[in-house]
Automatic annotation (TrEMBL), chain A:
<feature type="transmembrane region" description="Helical">
    <location>
        <begin position="94"/>
        <end position="116"/>
    </location>
</feature>
<keyword id="KW-1133">Transmembrane helix</keyword>
<protein>
    <submittedName>
        <fullName>Quinol:cytochrome c oxidoreductase membrane protein</fullName>
    </submittedName>
</protein>
<keyword id="KW-0812">Transmembrane</keyword>
<keyword id="KW-0472">Membrane</keyword>
<dbReference type="Pfam" id="PF11821">
    <property type="entry name" value="ActD"/>
</dbReference>
<feature type="transmembrane region" description="Helical">
    <location>
        <begin position="55"/>
        <end position="74"/>
    </location>
</feature>
<dbReference type="InterPro" id="IPR021776">
    <property type="entry name" value="ActD"/>
</dbReference>
From TrEMBL, chain B:
<feature type="transmembrane region" description="Helical">
    <location>
        <begin position="317"/>
        <end position="339"/>
    </location>
</feature>
<feature type="transmembrane region" description="Helical">
    <location>
        <begin position="175"/>
        <end position="196"/>
    </location>
</feature>
<feature type="transmembrane region" description="Helical">
    <location>
        <begin position="21"/>
        <end position="39"/>
    </location>
</feature>
<feature type="transmembrane region" description="Helical">
    <location>
        <begin position="51"/>
        <end position="69"/>
    </location>
</feature>
<protein>
    <submittedName>
        <fullName>Quinol:cytochrome c oxidoreductase quinone-binding subunit 2</fullName>
    </submittedName>
</protein>
<keyword id="KW-0812">Transmembrane</keyword>
<keyword id="KW-0472">Membrane</keyword>
<feature type="transmembrane region" description="Helical">
    <location>
        <begin position="208"/>
        <end position="231"/>
    </location>
</feature>
<keyword id="KW-1133">Transmembrane helix</keyword>
């Protein structure tokens, strides 16, 4: 059983102030959910930088190598065709397709990696605590496990920052 | 956001030390020219081609900076305010570029085959409605009068806002930028035809104007980065922070790729269709300038592509400055490859004292004019409504 306390804000600025106020009291914040990216929130929560660029680079390199060698194989070994007397292995003519596949691989890898990492992929069960978060509410989530304070004390601290409808839930996850 | 202690801005002074350095650089350039003319006695077309090339590079830096500023103004972007005066002052060098062009006018006969009106073959005869001296001169005058006017007028409005702030100036700045972009869209292409493509008068390429424009833009951004980093180091622009450098680095990175894209688009189609009248341009360059031809691609695409790919590389001033310098030299080489094979020919063209020394003279004049213009106004626009945002934004 995991005891969770959450509260809502209707303004991103209020949310940022509340996060700072809670952190000053030494309260650990489990998660913050927002309908859109909030400027400065990442640095306040001390989140690590995303690894998505590395995923994109590696996938892009794989795509480039695969497509280039595939074309090279097709036009020299698999099915050589004579295009206007040009050499079979015309590196220049491979570049547009190589470029496209590089972009395709990088884009798909980023999309898939993002979905998997954020638990949004097919078959995953989203743990949305409150539907309002998908609309216009900003949510701070606290967990009793991470903090020395009791559940009621955490709820009071959250309410003190001006959070709306503070709730305590017990989820199985 | 990391809070930094912003030091007090140091007022810019075009001091004696700086003047001495620039004087030495100009001296080196003039010396190289004199040696080339009187001691080495190089063929006249090589001298004129060098003067022409440096005049073009001189113009490109100012024109590219003016374009960069107007694009950002038109897009109502706010990030560039903290170093906007750098671009304004670079733009003010445009009228002086005209002087350098005029100085190279006696060599037009050496540079442009189509000026030999008495011996034109059929292809060049058919091009005379566009490529004839009177019309060429009219275009030359129109380009420079309008470009200079826009550079001067935009700067005037921008400085006026320092003293009597009013919203109307912002609107006027935006509207004038729009008109400049409309004119620039056409003139950047036609000027590239007039001054570069018509050197190889028989040859043509429909995207040549954009190709030259992309090179110009990258070179100008490289110079903006170099000057901005230097001014930041000497606390003349202390408000410029890593976010500005990061975004400038993104422009350098992105437009280097754009340049390579246009380079490939032009080369691939000509290579693929394989028509002699089109391939002649590349045959000359690949056969006789092999090293430079491939070096051009490596310096202008491979180097910035891998060197500026990561986030950290664009936020490291010294590193970014080195890459900018390399790319700037790369676009000088690009211009060399555009002019020399047609104007001088591979028998006479080489990179010697003249090619390396003369740019110092033009650079010194460019920087002198730039510093004089920069010293005449406040280093950062005052009372600009977007100024706060330029100091406080950050890249995610």
């Amino acid at each position: 059983m995991k005891n969770i306390i959450y509260g809502h804000f209707t303004d991103d600025h209020d949310l940022l102030e509340a996060v700072k106020a809670l952190q000053e009291k030494g309260i650990h914040i489990a998660d913050v959910r927002t309908p859109f990216p909030v400027h400065g929130l990442d640095t306040v929560l001390k989140l690590r930088r995303s690894h998505l660029p590395k995923v994109a680079f590696i996938a892009g390199v794989i795509g480039a190598v695969l497509m280039f060698s595939f074309q090279y194989w097709v036009f020299t070994e698999g099915w050589p065709l004579n295009f206007g007397g040009k050499p079979y292995s015309s590196i220049l003519s491979f570049i547009p397709a190589t470029f496209e596949i590089t972009v395709l691989f990088a884009a798909f890898a980023m999309g898939i990696a993002f979905l998997l990492r954020s638990n949004l992929g097919p078959g995953s069960i989203p743990d949305i605590l409150d539907e309002e978060v998908t609309n216009d509410h900003f949510q701070i989530i606290l967990s009793e496990k991470d903090n020395t304070l009791s559940e009621t004390e955490l709820a009071e601290a959250l309410e003190a920052t001006g959070a709306l409808d503070v709730k305590q839930v017990n989820t199985k996850k | 956001m990391e809070k930094q202690n912003i030091p007090e801005p140091v007022p810019f002074k075009f001091g004696k030390k700086l003047k001495t350095y620039l004087g030495i650089a100009a001296g080196i350039g003039l010396l190289a020219l004199l040696i080339a003319v009187f001691v080495q006695q190089l063929p006249s077309e090589r001298i004129w081609a060098n003067l022409w090339m440096n005049a073009l590079m001189f113009l490109f830096l100012g024109l590219g900076a003016l374009f960069f500023w107007t694009v950002n103004t038109l897009g109502e972007s706010t990030w560039q305010i903290n170093f906007q005066r750098v671009m304004e002052s670079m733009g003010l060098t445009i009228p002086f570029a005209a002087i350098f062009f005029v100085l190279a006018f006696p060599g037009l006969k050496d540079l442009f085959e189509w000026t030999h009106t008495e011996h034109l073959d059929r292809i060049l005869q058919e091009k005379t409605p566009y490529l004839n001296m009177p019309f060429w001169m009219v275009r030359f005058a129109v380009y420079f009068i309008l470009w200079s006017f826009f550079a001067w007028y935009l700067r005037k409005i921008s400085v006026k806002n320092d003293f009597e702030p009013h919203d109307k100036y912002l609107g006027r700045l935006r509207a004038t930028s729009g008109w400049f972009i409309v004119f620039f869209a056409i003139s950047s292409s036609t000027a590239a035809w007039d001054w570069l493509m018509s050197i190889d008068a028989h040859w043509f390429s429909t995207l040549y104007g954009w190709y030259i424009f992309s090179g110009m833009f990258v070179a100008a951004i490289a110079v903006i980065i170099l000057i901005t980093i230097a001014f930041k180091k000497f606390n003349i622009l202390p408000n410029v922070n890593k976010e500005h450098l990061h975004d400038l680095g993104k422009y350098l990175f992105g437009f280097s790729i754009f340049w390579a894209y246009l380079w490939l688009s032009q080369y691939l189609l000509i290579w693929y269709s394989n028509i002699p009248e089109e391939t002649v341009y590349y045959v000359e360059r690949v056969n006789n300038y092999k090293t430079l031809f491939y070096m051009n691609l490596i310096i202008n695409f491979v180097v910035p592509f891998f060197a500026l790919m990561t986030r950290g590389s664009k936020r490291q001033p010294l590193y970014l400055a080195i890459v900018s310098l390399v790319v700037l030299l790369g676009h000088y080489l690009d211009l060399y490859l555009a002019i020399m094979p047609g104007a001088v020919g591979h028998e006479n063209a080489s990179i010697g004292l003249l090619e390396i020394g003369l740019p110092f003279f033009y650079l010194a004049v460019f920087l002198t004019l730039f510093f004089i213009s920069f010293g005449k106004a406040k280093p950062v626009p005052e009372n600009h409504p977007y100024a706060i945002e330029s100091s406080s934004y950050e890249n995610i």
